[in-house]
Amino acid sequence: MESMLKVEKLNVNYGAIHAVRDVSLSINKGEIVTLIGANGAGKSSVIRAIMGLVKAKADEMTYTSPRDNNTVNILGRPAEEHVKLGIALSPEGRRILPQLTVEENLALGAYTRNDAQGIAEDVEYVYSLFPRLKERHRQKGSTLSGGEQQMLAVGRALMSRPDLLMLDEPSLGLAPILVDEVFGIIREINSQGRTILLVEQNAFAALKVAHKAYVLEVGAVGLSGTGAELLNNPKVRAAYLGG
Fold this sequence. Notes:
The chain is α/β, with parallel strands linked by helices. The chain has one domain: Rossmann fold. It is built from ten helices and ten strands. It has a six-stranded mixed β-sheet, sandwiched between helices. Helix 3 (102-109) packs parallel to helix 6.
């Protein structure tokens, strides 16, 4: 099967700090792929490099669009071009605009589109996934709880109609009941045909939903396999799952 996203020997440096070292990964259409690892392992740097938000070097970084089966080199392209290709990121820390309403934040997610009817349909789609956002659609982002802001960040990313949705730490800071809800929605989004790249510190929750997983250790891939394989790997269990 041809990879939808293929990354070979990705490197990211911040001055003298070599944050990502020769990371290679591939994502096939329809998969949930997760990157797990300790805080500071380089997970967010990988996803930000793929999105074009940080400078990076790589032997290869290609994206094959399921829309036209065209393969393009995405290394060094600005993030806006990635969005037009069908790649979207829900960033770590949510980054919603607190002074704008829920509906206005969602509209920003569709800034590359001009199909008013489709945008309206996608707003309703986001509300079907996150009914609480519909209840609060006229409220400013600043009035939402942490869980609601996370839902809004994911909903905003969905508004560009991505084929590849990248989620950076979607469960960070959430109560356990909300973590379960967010991961249930990740499964739901995937079941509707979207491919997902998930960066997550909650290794147990991430591996349970992942088809494929990579463990990052000090900026490099230490282990890879299916989600089930890594859930049952003694080294992974000892390091990330409390034994």
